[in-house]
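$ ./design --mode recover --in tokens.txt
reading tokens...
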């Protein structure tokens, strides 16, 4: 007859699992406006993602190849290109990558062109964690 004295220990052993290392998903933020970029990086981090930041398309494309981010948050203020040119270059490298435009306001006319060129969504500033979570959750 099996002993009941170590039953609790045996049951706990059945449910014990080794912890798996969790690698945070990454989001690349390409925006020339330092204050807005850093604010967005804090929101990204608050949602459990690892933010990568850059101000230029050239550096963003290098990080795209090196880091393989899950999404790109692309601002319209860039150091070395327009946002629509940047979007074209990103699409050339990875046509399936989710690119979300960061518009300075709701009425920015460049958003429509970016959406036609392959952006999956846009967020108008100011936006919060819930707005970002919703857009990221669509994919």
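writing sequence...
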């Amino acid at each position: 007859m099996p002993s009941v004295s170590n039953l609790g220990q045996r049951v706990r052993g059945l449910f014990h699992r080794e912890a798996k290392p969790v690698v945070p998903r990454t989001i690349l933020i390409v925006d020339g406006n330092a204050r807005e970029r850093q604010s967005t990086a804090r929101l990204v981090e608050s949602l459990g993602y690892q933010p990568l930041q850059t101000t230029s398309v050239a550096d963003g494309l290098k990080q795209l190849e090196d880091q393989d981010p899950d999404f790109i948050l692309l601002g319209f203020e860039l150091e070395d290109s327009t946002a629509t040119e940047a979007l074209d270059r990103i699409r050339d490298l990875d046509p399936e990558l989710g690119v979300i435009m960061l518009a300075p306001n709701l009425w920015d006319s460049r958003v429509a062109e970016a959406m036609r060129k392959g952006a999956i969504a846009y967020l108008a500033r100011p936006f919060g964690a819930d707005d970002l979570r919703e857009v990221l959750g669509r994919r």
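exit 0
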